[in-house]
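Continuing the series of single-chain predictions for the mutant panel. This is the parent chain; the variants come on the following pages.
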Amino acid sequence: MSERIELTKSDLAQQEKCMEDVRRMLLERYPNRQPLAFTHSYGCQQNVSDGEKIRGMLAEMGYGFTNQESEADCIIFNTCAVRENAEFRIYGNVGNLKRYKKQNPSLIIGLCGCMMQQEHVAKKIRESYPYVDLIFGTHAAHLLPSMMKKRLEGQKHVEEITPQDGVIVEDMPIRRDGTVKAWLPIMYGCDNFCTYCVVPYVRGRERSRRPERILDEVRQLASQGYKEIMLLGQNVNSYGKGLEEPVDFTQLLRQIDEVEGDFRVRFMTSHPKDCTREMIDTIAQSKKLCHHIHLPVQSGSDRILRLMNRHYDTEKYLGLIEYAKEKIPDLTLSSDIIVGFPGETYEDFCATLDLVRKVEYDFLFTFIYSKRVGTKAAQMDDPVPASEKSKWFRELLSVQSEISQKRCEKLIGSVQQVLVDGPAREGTGRVGGKSGGNITVEFPGDASLTGQMVHVRITEAHNWGVIGERQE
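Parent structure:
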């Protein structure tokens, strides 16, 4: 566990001064218009939340925003390092920016996030994409204002990749992407070191925000009319480690549940080794916590779980699931599963299928194993060909599709409270949103319902979700 360090008031004041300086410089550079920024965050919800803070700082520095890269005076990609395909896509997109730099030499291009926290990636960017102006890792996002100032003052390449674990940064500006759902990080980093995962190396060790700061933010979001708050952490239910006054995740959930306001609460991503019966009891007894648990199992083979360094076995996992279903009858469950981990046999994979059938998840997030530089799994023998892994993957999807269909059919006739996200697929005449159980629900309606909580009686089931009719 790393030492928990908060950004000092002096450090914060320094960045605020840099934001003022950048705003002044941009007014001089663009006297007749507001400069525009384009940002994009790849990957997980934590990255999206980080992206909202980047946009908040850019707004304070004087930027407006555009959805078109070709219109931007500043482009920042917030990168993801969890899977190889995501990295390839980001490299391709960065390559496409070269033409915009040629058209607009004053364009500032920045890359940040998990990929940039890895030295071999930063080296590749320096050597292969020299037109990138800013490179900063996950632990240095709050330094964006000072980096922008250096670049505008004439420094050609500005880089901040500290190897230390990041600080806890409070009171930085934020520009949220929506007005209905809000991301709320409660902790950062991970101490688990699963052998396939690069997160502890790019996000650092676990460190938790103080509960009073979290509760203040919940109250603020509730007063602003947000209807759903998602608590975020790489390992959210290990919250509380390193705090001066111990508060664990369950205690924090109870405190949040007591905050006044008409909103509901979700959380992710939780780790089975830190999932307790007390946590399940708290969800069952709460007023605001959604009756949905995302509990990544990754594999149904105890041998593979040991190789993954997951710190639980299938017996413990299934025991938690059984207890949760008993205590929360309308519970919905989701999970992450990796197919084709190094050394996995078809027998191991079949154990995963057996577990999926026993649990009957409402939906799954499934992935074929992706080798990550610096992880222990990257050094393991991996004899199964990609074609065979793809075959297993399709088999898993087929099994889960049948289960999802069956689970959704059980909702027919029930009335679900749905937070409307907006219009559903074009041409359907329906709007869609999520139930408290995180099930996709569509029903006839128009965009004016977006952001409202409505009751929907379910009439039709599919493997992707359900369709119903609004109950007035």
